[in-house]
Design a protein that fits this description.
single chain, alpha+beta, Outer membrane efflux proteins (OEP), 2 domains, 4-stranded antiparallel β-sheet, 3-stranded mixed β-sheet, 64% helix, elongated
Length: 428
């Protein structure tokens, strides 16, 4: 694919130095593919098998729509005498035989055929809306996974920096311990901190691998490592106050697939209610017949009609059930509308909360903290600070990085949720 830039590399050439546990490594033949959000969507639309299956489902429903337009087949009956005992003939013909024939055609009354056609067409529309709903749901999952991977990778980089520094420090301490220059307690405390970071890092890598697996499944890609590329300037410029709440709600009322599906389900149930009432009217059958010599006259030709008499079964149960199902669909539609409005209010509130939290931070804080990390390590080596201060700073640095990345993940998830619930692309 021309939009993909493939780079042959090992997973931990990016994330991990060779001394980390072999259990965290992946196949060296894994391809690392850099994706922007646009290239991700392009591959998704081309490759996703769930979308392909749903497209086939639309075609299948269109076939049922064509089936509903067909008229009932005519019915023909023919019979002949098998054996004439008087003339001793098998299948006699002519004056010694007896032949009857009948042709019948059902005529559907009360507009049942047109009602079936309209229901089939509505079901086709329903399948199309389900396709759109699947598309929006998968895209929401894909986008949130994409941004999660990006910021989790940044968190992983913070771990590798600290682990690398502590490994170097631990190696020096082991040498100094044999020479009696440091206490065993201090050396063990450094090693314990290193093991703790490695364990946390391993948990983070497993989380990344789980998200990678989900993304690969959605994109229908195998043996690749997804490396997201994100425009951080665009991310930081996103604002929860850019669009009014009512504008987003109005968009959802017109565009959200769940609400469209709920409304169409109400219409389909109303159609079915009308159809079941029409089913109370019996259909008419027109019959044309011929009897060679079994009637009061030879070569008897007849025409007639047949119809069920609705004395007992007037489809009462199905009519009542269809009416109740219509009422249920109407309640579900109201519930869907209320749920969507509440979800939009909730995610917009979350977006605003994370927005305020992000922009309330000092823009130079993270850079200053990063620069201070190396000087803190050097100060500890020179014994300008004690072990507790050193470890406390490293924990504070790690927690700060994890916190800011978590804020960004939750913030972008909220913005993607606004797009999802509104049925429109407000933030892109």
């Amino acid at each position: 694919m021309p939009i993909l830039k493939k780079i042959k590399c090992c997973y931990f050439a990016i994330l991990l130095c060779p001394c980390i546990s072999n259990a965290q490594q992946v196949n060296s033949l894994t391809d690392t593919i850099k994706f922007s959000i646009d290239s991700l969507d392009h591959v998704f639309l081309q490759n996703n098998l769930q979308l392909l299956a749903q497209k086939y489902n639309i075609d299948a429903q269109r076939a049922l729509e064509a089936q509903a337009k067909l008229y009932p087949n005519p019915n023909v009956q023919f019979s002949s005498i098998l054996y004439n005992s008087q003339s001793k003939q098998l299948l006699p013909v002519g004056t010694n035989g007896e032949v009857t024939a009948q042709l019948s055609q059902m005529i559907i009354l009360a507009g049942k055929r047109n009602k079936q056609i309209k229901m089939a067409q509505a079901n086709t529309q329903l399948t199309q809306l389900q396709f759109i709903d699947l598309l929006q749901t998968l895209k929401f999952t894909l986008h949130t996974d994409f941004y999660s991977l990006y910021y989790l990778h940044k968190s992983a980089s913070a771990y590798t920096d600290e682990i690398s520094s502590l490994q170097t420090l631990n190696s020096g301490f082991e040498t100094q311990l044999t020479q009696g220059n440091v206490s065993k307690k201090e050396a063990l405390r450094i090693k314990a901190q290193l093991y703790s970071l490695q364990s946390e890092y391993n948990d983070l890598i497993n989380k990344i691998n789980d998200i990678q697996s989900e993304v690969r499944t959605i994109l229908h890609l195998q043996k690749v490592f997804i490396m997201p590329t994100v425009d951080e300037q665009w991310v930081n410029n996103l604002s929860a106050t850019q669009f009014p709440l009512q504008t987003i709600i109005d968009s959802a009322m017109q565009n959200h697939s769940d609400l469209k599906i709920a409304k169409l389900n109400t219409e389909i149930n109303q159609m079915n209610y009308g159809y079941q009432k029409a089913m109370a009217v019996p259909d008419l059958t027109v019959i044309a017949g011929y009897d060679q010599q079994g009637s009061f006259t030879k070569n008897y030709n007849s025409i007639g009609i047949a119809m069920d008499l609705p004395f007992f079964n007037r489809n009462q149960g199905n009519i009542r059930s269809a009416k109740i199902q219509t009422q249920i669909a109407q309640v579900n539609e109201q519930n869907t509308e209320a749920t969507i409005q509440e979800n939009i209010y909730n995610v917009l509130t979350k977006a605003a909360t994370y927005d305020n939290l992000l922009h309330s931070r000092d823009t130079q804080f993270d850079q200053s903290f990063k620069a201070l990390q190396q000087s803190t390590l050097e100060n500890y080596r020179q014994r300008n600070i004690n072990l507790l201060d050193f470890l406390d700073f490293y924990d504070a640095y790690k927690n700060n990085v994890l916190q800011i990345n978590s804020i960004q993940i939750n913030r972008l998830t909220a913005f993607e949720a606004i797009n999802y619930y509104s049925g429109s692309i407000f933030y892109k």
